[in-house]
Write a structure and sequence with these properties.
The protein is of the alpha/beta class. It has helices at about 55-60, 85-90, 100-110, and strands at about 15, 20-25, 25-30, 30-35, 40, 65-70, 90-95, 115-120. The protein has one domain (about 15-120): Hypothetical Protein Mth938, Chain: A.
Length: about 130
């Protein structure tokens, strides 16, 4: 699916497909943490099953209003105990499949919100 560009100063996901997203002019094929203010961090996991509590502790260190978690090709929820560092900082985490997370991130970023997307980009066939 390809998005039509709208005027925004935020980092934008321009397109996505199985195992990749297009951010501005770059094609990304590994899981990533992406922020509307320009943040880009590698997120070392290739599948939902690779996640650990440390992945969510890392998200709790980020400055954001909201974190959108793209759990891969389908919507899956992390264990509630793993979200404790986020709750302690009063950071919201919305969980959805990665394509929905891409769309939601773009909407919030275009509104000028300080949003972070943590996206699992699973290789096709995973």
């Amino acid at each position: 699916m390809k998005f039509q560009p709208e005027p925004s100063t935020a980092q934008t996901i321009r397109a996505y497909g199985p195992g990749w997203i297009g951010v501005d002019t770059e094609k990304i094929t590994t899981s990533i943490i992406l922020g509307s203010g320009g943040l880009r961090l590698a997120w070392p996991c290739t599948r939902f099953e690779d996640l650990t509590p440390e992945h969510f502790a890392q998200l709790a260190t980020l400055e954001a209003e909201l974190i959108v978690f793209g759990s891969g090709t389908r919507n899956r929820f992390p264990p509630p105990a793993w979200l404790q560092p986020l709750m302690a900082r009063r950071l919201g985490l919305e969980t959805m499949d990665t394509p929905a997370a891409c769309r939601t991130y773009n909407i919030l970023a275009s509104e000028g919100r300080n949003v972070v997307a943590a996206l699992i980009l699973e290789a096709p066939g995973s």
